[in-house]
């Protein structure tokens, strides 16, 4: 895959770090060119589809940051861990279904290597009032 421009950090951190054959990304929200494409809490009464694009963008940002840590000839062997943080309002309980969008995106880009051990967590808030934040840990081959 051709390298894309890294997501723009919103603080004093790097988009991803690498140690040996492991890549750890920062938490990535659904920013495109530094601007959130969707804001607000994930609502229990709203169709999940409302949040698909935001989850895809956050997953894309994390994957882009990871890919940019690869050397020529390397690839992502496996996404080992996927953390999905959901800025959920009270009453929202289907965090894992929202996280499925991130898994779907990673599998679309990486095949079976995109399926990871995963946690989907509801949180009280996220930076910039983002609806989701995603972090991945990848193994390199």
Low-pLDDT segments? none
Q: How big is the Rg? A: 14 Å
Specify the structural class.
Answer: alpha+beta
Number of strands: 7
- Spatial order of the strands forming the largest sheet: 1-2-7-5-6
Q: What portion of the residues fall into strands of 2 or more residues?
A: 25-35%
Task: Describe the protein in words.
This protein is an alpha+beta fold and 141 residues long. Helix content is 23%, strand content 28%. It contains 2 helices and 7 strands; from the N terminus they run ββββαβαββ. The chain has helices at residues 52-67, 95-110; strands at 16-19, 22-25, 31-32, 35-36, 76-87, 117-123, 132-140. It has a 5-stranded mixed beta sheet with strand order 1-2-7-5-6, with helices on one face. β5 (76-87), α2 (95-110) and β6 form a beta-alpha-beta unit. α1 (52-67) packs across α2 (95-110). The longest helix is centred in the middle third of the chain and has 16 residues, at 52-67. The model has no long low-confidence stretch (mean pLDDT 94).
Give a quick set of tags describing it.
two-stranded antiparallel ribbon, globular
Write the layout of secondary structure elements.
Layout: E1 16-19, E2 22-25, E3 31-32, E4 35-36, H1 52-67, E5 76-87, H2 95-110, E6 117-123, E7 132-140
Parallel strand pairs: 5-6
Antiparallel strand pairs: 1-2, 2-7, 3-4, 5-7
Helix pairs in contact: 1-2
Describe this structure in a few short sentences:
The protein has 141 residues and is of the alpha+beta class. The chain has helices at 52-67, 95-110; strands spanning 16-19, 22-25, 31-32, 35-36, 76-87, 117-123, 132-140. It is 23% helix and 28% strand.
């Amino acid at each position: 895959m051709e390298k894309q421009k890294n997501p723009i950090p919103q603080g004093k951190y790097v988009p991803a770090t690498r140690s040996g054959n492991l890549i750890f990304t920062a938490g990535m929200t659904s920013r495109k060119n530094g601007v959130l494409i969707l804001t607000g809490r994930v609502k229990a009464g709203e169709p999940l589809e409302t949040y698909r694009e935001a989850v895809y963008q956050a997953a894309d940002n994390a994957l882009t940051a990871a890919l940019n840590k690869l050397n020529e000839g390397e690839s992502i062997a496996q996404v080992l861990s996927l953390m999905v943080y959901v800025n959920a309002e009270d009453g929202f309980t289907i965090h894992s279904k929202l996280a499925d969008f991130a898994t779907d995106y990673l599998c679309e880009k990486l095949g079976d290597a995109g399926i990871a051990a995963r946690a989907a967590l509801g949180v009280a808030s996220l930076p910039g009032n983002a609806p989701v934040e995603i972090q991945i840990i990848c193994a390199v081959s």
